[in-house]
Amino acid sequence: MNSVGIIGVGYLGACLAEGLASAGLSVLLSPRNAARSAELAERFGCRIASGNAEVIERSEVVFLSTRPAQIAETASGLPWRADQVVISTAAGIGLDTIRPAVAPATAVRSMPIATSRLRRSPTAFYPENPTAAEVLRKLGTAIPFEDEGAFETASIFGAYYAMLYAFFDEMSGWAEMHGLPPEPARLLTAGMADAAAAAVIDRTDVAPRQLLDDLLTPGGISEEGLKVLRDAGALSRWRDAMDASLERALAIKAVG
Fold first, then answer.
1. What's the pTM value of the predicted model, to 2 decimals?
2. Which CATH architecture has domain 157-255?
3. Which residue positions form the known binding site for NADP(+)?
């Protein structure tokens, strides 16, 4: 598998293109967002198709990265082939909507994030498909799911990813308020999160809570900060936020 097409070259589509091209794949872009497609062609050697039909005719795998409400309309009536895999990135749009639009191609749902451009996206996808897994591994970690309900829950981690930026903004803002220059404030904020994530991934035999407990010293600075968060209900509000995002995704799917 060497040829990948992308229909919908918005922000996420551009991130996919950059990551795939950096991985050595031949990337063919739909032409609608002319300025962005031209920039990707110049910087990463992507090619620009004359239209969506050409993307399909010349690609083994096609990413559908249009807005969710537009995905069925965009995909319908195009020359899909039975030997193709179509990977949708549209949140909340189920396979029951995607499959008829791309028949006879094989449809797969996915939830890549913007760090696809760095080839560091943990990407949930459904159903398990070896071709989709091969492509998504070019962008980071490919995480398959056996049923659509589980995938729907996993896809909400795309919202979690976005919410982390708000957390980072709070932390780096606090550091600057206390006199740190912006650059070290940013490096410490992101670097500490990266270090904690690395420990969780490395120690799969240990629950995150145990890793936390191992760090805490009675009467220490970490314990004091956690007490403030717990007393305010701040930690449980993260679950509330994820519940709200999941409910929104299910509502979109019901309409779509």
1. 0.91
2. Orthogonal Bundle (1.10)
3. 7-12
